[in-house]
Amino acid sequence: MKPFYCLVLLSLWLAPSRAWSHQQPTQPTTQVLTANRTPSLLKIDGVLEEEWNAAPATGPFTNQWPLDSGFAEARTEVKVLFNDQFLYVSAVNYQRREDLIIQSLKRDQLEPFWRSDGFAILVDPLRQKSTGFLFGVNAGGAQLDGAVTQTSAWSQTNENWDNKWFSAVKVYDDYWIAEMAIPFTALRFKEGADGWGLNFIRNDMKRNVFATWSPVPVQLAGTDLAHLGTLQWGQPLHPVRSRVTLVPYMAGGHSRNHEEGEPAKTRGDVGLDAKVSLTSSLNLDLTLRPDFSNVEVDRQMTNVTRFSLLYPERRNFFLENADLFANFGSWNVKPFFSRTIGLHDGDPVPIAAGARLSGNLTNSLRIGLMDVQTETTDEVSANNYFVATVQQRVLARSVIKALVTNRQTTRATGGDTQLDYNRTLGGEFQYTAPKASFNVYLRAHTAQTPEKLSENNYISTQVSYLTKKYYGGLMLEKVGENYVNDLSFIPRLHNYDAARDTTVRIGHYTVNPWFGWLIYPKNSKTNIIELNTWSVINFRSDGSFLERYTSLNVSFAFKDTRKLYVEATNNEVNLPFPSDILDNDQPIPVEHYNFTQYSARYTTDTRKAFNGSVNASFGNFYNGTRLEYGMTLNFRSQPWGLFGVSFLQNDIRLPEAYGKAQFTLVGPRAEVSLRNNLWWTTFLQYNTQAGNFNINSRVQWRFKPMSDIFVVYTDNYATTDMRVKNKGVVFKLTYWLNL
């Protein structure tokens, strides 16, 4: 354990003896901005018309990161207008043209957006401080929109949420203007409300600073919903609403499965998505024969654990009000995971139709109902998936939640002999302090199967605390051996027995404590130094020890965007079954293992045209050793092109009886923005662990807002001999129509 203490001493030696004593900004903590009504439809072109002259403007923005004291050096002036159709926003962002950083012109790129000079508006129309909408543009005009949800002290932005809105950017020598028109049809709100929650966020990459109009503490994200100001309506708001939105599609494709020796296939499909506004805050989404062939391919990862990896949901139908369904459980247990619907072992299962009702019944009561019917394949039976959820807000920011799921086989195929079912019922309580510094969770779920098994519960409690200098928490969790939830993601419940070639469920307890210390150096090249320790300890249901993971790390965030991360991790495992961790039919035996790994990662200045990162990890691994090393290299031709390559190598050496392996993952990529509405993206992913070399190339032309033409080409080869597995091309047209 000595290296753990060495890391602590290293960080204390590098940290200055004094930290910032944060001073609150002198401006009011509650900001108010009045939106005046305009009688005309404004032209969105980045050139501000006369109507903007009389609109009230914001005062100076407050620094939010890396320090939350004082006013922002780069000035931002924002005004808001509205009519019955649109919420209009104009922002004058002062920055010299030659200092602007634009990472990408591609839409909905969350990380490149926050690493570019940009401006965003965050609105909470229902003023619940739990859900909101983010609309942003970078200095190149690339749009970002997303649904923001608040879970405990952290806000999360789902950039896969999309809607129809308009924006334009115009760059001058000493400033750039962002102009937006957001249709009221894109938002959910209660008519007659006298104000909305509001904040503005400014990215200043020259100084590596983020500033907000309404002050947000540095330990929270700038999108935090607990620290919004107020958007006050100068006159009553009576928006014109589009009750129905139709998004029909046509798709065609040509493919061939060489691996199975199948002949080439040509397909053609039509389908429809529909959005029906039942009330101003309650929405019905319908889908008929949905097609997800245009969804961006998953980024492949090397997996050296004994458990499955979690990949994000990217399919549009499952993203509207996704927090209603997805924000149950903990990081370790997801009682509902939408990728269990319409996917089987990573391959798509046809969906016949689906419906989702979601939104607010009252200011404090939200509901979500979802029903999806899948079709049969040669391997998978047809199933109906039903999910119901309700969230009742209590106190200032706390919530009581309930979840019901049901999977019912409707038509058996393959090896299935009966129409089985799987049902779950769960309830949760989340207490969040008014300013999100203290949080408590209570969770209880149960599962039902035809066998009516006992030990079928999931129970969890969690406490966390967050301040500017310290954070910590403790989670206690129990997963019963027979908590069989077909719509969940619970990797540690399912353990593979390599000797018998079967998967065995193991009920377990989890103890998960964590603690972190934040240091804000004064007069230093470092913005933040963070020390963190994290442990996950698992026991069987009878109390016997299963495994433990303990990490101690220190990270340095420099003022020029460079980052350094150093970590030591110790693993202790009572292996329950022989494990074929190298997938070579030579499983390691059931024993007690204790091994330690040391790792470091360094990221260069992301504002530079050439930037990248290097990482390395070495140490013991079960009864052998593991060396991991990798790098990324990126080149940005601002603003139209981003080119890069990533490389990751794992060298695992076990005793001779259990073999050795080299897992290589190489991922060249190219993103070319021919215009703000025409993008070409190509990924090459060479993965020896999966035995697959994948080529995915996608062209997207947004010929009208939210209306697209896609051309997607995919090609897969075996890494051993570059034998072609399958290849295909897809054409798809979608059109967004408001009725």
Model description:
Residues 1-21 form the signal peptide. Residues 44-213 form the Carbohydrate-binding domain. This is Carbohydrate binding family 9 domain-containing protein. It comes from Chryseolinea lacunae. The chain contains 3 helices and 42 strands. It has 739 residues and is mainly beta. Among the domains are: 31-233, Immunoglobulin-like; 251-260 and 579-739, Porin, CATH 2.40.160. The strands form 4 sheets. It has a 24-stranded antiparallel barrel. Strands 1, 2, 3, 4, 5, 6, 7, 8, 9, 10, 11, 12 and 13 form a 13-stranded mixed beta sheet that branches. Strand 7 (143-151) and strand 8 form a beta hairpin. The longest helix is centred in the first third of the chain and has 13 residues, at 2-14. The protein starts with a helix and ends with a strand.
